[in-house]
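Most newcomers find our protein records easier to grasp once they have seen one. Sequence and backbone structure share a record, each on its own labelled line. Nothing more is needed to start thinking about how sequence determines fold. As an example, a complete record with its sequence and its structure tokens follows.
=====
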Amino acid sequence: MSHTKSLEEFLERVTGRKITQTELAETLDISRRTWLNRRMRLGRPESDDIIALARHYWCNPVAALMYCGAIKP
């Protein structure tokens, strides 16, 4: 069974600092509740959100999608 890693974990590794759910929601300009509901639907963030957040934090969107299990290598 594979373990999908969290987007927060990926962003923390890349940025070297703690990333909160609230910070991610604010970055996407949505409420924290909306952010959490989107995550619960798929068991991970939606691909569009992963891409937007990766770009905001100057990360490779494809690497972020792969890390979160949204796409396979």
